[in-house]
Amino acid sequence: MPDRILVINPNSTEECTRGIDQACAPLRMPGGPGIDCVTLREGPPGVETQQHVDGVVAPMLKLIREKEKDYAAFVVACYSDPGLHSLREATNKPVLGISECGILTALTLGQKFGVIAILKQSIPRHLRYVGALGVSDRLAGELPIGLPVVELSDEKKTFGRMVEAGRTLRDTHAANVVIMGCAGMARYRKPLQDEIGIPVVEPTQAAVTMAIGRVKLNWAGV
């Protein structure tokens, strides 16, 4: 089996993929699996609605089927985990979604987790997923920063809003761990954690970390 992990950005914004790739850099280590990050060119600039979520499933299925022989595991780098269960039906190799992995990681770091979303309209979709995972009682709250994916590269605007949301989740909602609810936020994890003083989970890092464990321990289900 090839010792590589494919991280798929389901939106078509290359800047977002570069941020994801940078977030994966600390997880590239001697003796570990290779980690490749790719952009789904058929995707929208940002996966921001349920229609966007539904629309990227078919091209991701096609991509995974084309790349299956080349990779030992796949990571879907979108906080809506689009098509996760369909993708798992398409391959016996591990397929991990960053939302599921980010939430599971947060549960090990604190009793109540908060989420920073990009847009207000993303929150109902995320709440449905938290409910499906059965962990609604551990959710402290979710707050938007009011920016689409394509604007997240504006560091001054984005980071300031993330700090404000993180502090509110900590102080008003009693969150003791925060998840960044979009892969496009990846570059801000450590500075945000330094600013708000509680653990901050970058969900792509959480998912890739789990994928590395599955590959190294041969938990592939094959």
Measured between the Cα atoms of the first and last residue, the distance is 11 Å
Parts with pLDDT < 50 across at least 5 consecutive residues: none
Q: Number of folding domains?
A: 2
Q: What's the rounded overall pLDDT mean?
A: 94
Approximately how much beta-strand content do the residues carry? Answer: 15-25%
**Strand count, sense and closure of the main sheet?**
4 strands, parallel
- Binned, the helix content reads 40-55%
Output the strand order for the largest sheet: 2-1-3-4
Shape: globular
Here the CATH topology of the largest domain equals Rossmann fold
Number of helical stretches of at least 4 residues? 9
Compressed to H and E, one letter per element, the order equals EHEHHEHEHEHEHEHEH
* Class per helix and strand makeup: alpha/beta
